[in-house]
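pipeline: protein-struct stage 2 | run 1193 | alpha-L-fucosidase
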Amino acid sequence: MNRKNKRLKLKSETLLTILLTLCVNSFNLQGQNIQNLPKPSIKQLQWQQMETIAFVHFSINTFTDKEWGYGNESPELFNPTNLDCRQWVKICKDAGMKGVILTAKHHDGFCLWPSKYTEYSVKNSPWKNGKGDLVREFADACKEFDMKMGLYLSPWDCNHPDYGKPEYNEYFKNQLEELLSNYGEVFEIWFDGANGGRGYYGTDKLHTRTIDKDYYNWSEFESVVKALQPNCIIHGGKIADIRWVGNEEGFAGETHWSTMLTSDKFDKNIPVKNQLNVGHENGTRWFPSETDVSMRPGWYYHNSENHKIKSLPKLLDIYYESVGRNSLLLLNLSPDKRGRIFTADSLRLLEWRRQLDLDFNENLIDGNASLIADNKEIFKNASDGNFQTYWKGDLEQPSFDIEFGEEKTFNRLLLQEFIAEGQRVKHFTVKGYTDNKWINIAQGTTIGYKRILRFSEVNASKIRIIIDESLAVPLISEVAVYNAPLVLSAPKIERNQSGLVNIISPDKSGKIFYTVDGSEPNNNSKEYTQPFLHDGDFT
């Protein structure tokens, strides 16, 4: 069991009563044949349980101050002065990541390993007098720190003269075999979706080459992966096990299905990126999403971006809107020209991990739980910190109450489905019991592997979670309640052309109070709930 799951395990400090209740108002069980629900493979399930992994973009682009090269950049430019893959991997490990993916070859075609199929690699660079193998050093570091290793291999190659011709497929297959044969276990192979465009392609003239949708021999590439790395997850291409989330900003849709239709069944009236971001409720295959986003504006290191590292509140939003919305987070780091992660980046990443540890430090569902209803043994399985056990909501409208025995303060709710049997929940409602009445706290749509709701602090002695709508009988593997500390950061105040004032707080679970007469705001001041019109200054 990983460290995070350990944090979710029940403590034995206070008495908690969990009461299963029956509500009969509006539950809509779709009646879908359970046998037809798409389900994850073992490797897809294990992949999603990693939750957060790291991307590392480091190559010749690091030394040209570019994001994309054209394939004509001299290998002589690649010369990190203090390369330390151990530093990269250790920082990722300390930040709670479970794996790291390295850009072994980006679109420019430059290889970070001494490939025997091209001269455009580290073997013709001044780094270690051409004797270095960066992929080997990276693999060794992953092994040392017990981190899973992934590799990015761009199908597009702006350096190779055969790109766009049938012969290139053999070249790409050979490089894929090199990477999957010589460096140990690879948990994910990343094929980028950018393919074809401007480059030199082994000539002295910048020009454009395009390919059609059937150019790559995907079936042959898939055979290579399955033969050499049968447990490897494939990202990209027609053979993918997982999907891109549809943006590089770091968020999955609030409604987020791990199921998708095949591409020929997509709704032609909805942008493809939007469909990837939400998924398809009626999807016919299990196709979970990966949310890739960079700590900086770019993917590679640029000195001009040293002051543009994402803030702590922004990184927290990214976590809650990716992992907390049933996706896996792939967070990018950009080593500098030395070959080391810049100090400010590493400090921010570790600050992010410390804050997440605080957010999920204490599950308020603690103590010896008791159930005043049927299915006592089964329901305990939904709060035991074990993803392999679950509560089966076999009532017409499943709901359950969490009784604390005393009033508690909380602002986070974590729910997980037992997705080994498919994703089921379409909508749920959360209520709290306070002042002798039930109040609405929050609503959500999908749950999937993990759903984390953030809301303003609530004081309540009981929580009621109602499964309003589900594709099949819901299976809840985990429920947890937390009171995360506020991350205080100055709100941003904006006024649009119509004069509407908008106050934006980095912490979405906090409250904002303001005054318009110049006095100091306090808890008795007007609470900000929506943009408003005001002439003149305000506080």
